[in-house]
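Quick question, first post here. What does this chain look like in 3D?
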Amino acid sequence: MREAHHVYVVELDPEVLRQARFRKSNPSYVDGMPCVYVGMTGLDPDVRFDKHKAGIQANRYVQRYGLHLRPDLYAHLNPMPYGDAQYMEVDLAIRLRQEGYGVWQA
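> Answer (accepted):
Ran it through. Tokens below.
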């Protein structure tokens, strides 16, 4: 199986907390913790982040509030097969939420 997929984490501007839908999705958010977007891609995470910011297959929170990648939260996981990346995207989002992060996961 080809290990060509990556999970990635983008730090979001705390202004994203003004979005009711984001705040509602994070009832256990701990004030002061980072807000992040967790995704998966077959591209290099840097390329995928640039596409988000350019509006290409973009998540609206990343396009508007994305600050930078957080490789400290995901680099040790990559690369991996597609199925593993699908699982890890959800698992990483859950773990970050449990730590108090504000998380958006597609």
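The mean pLDDT is 96.
Residues 6-105 form one domain.
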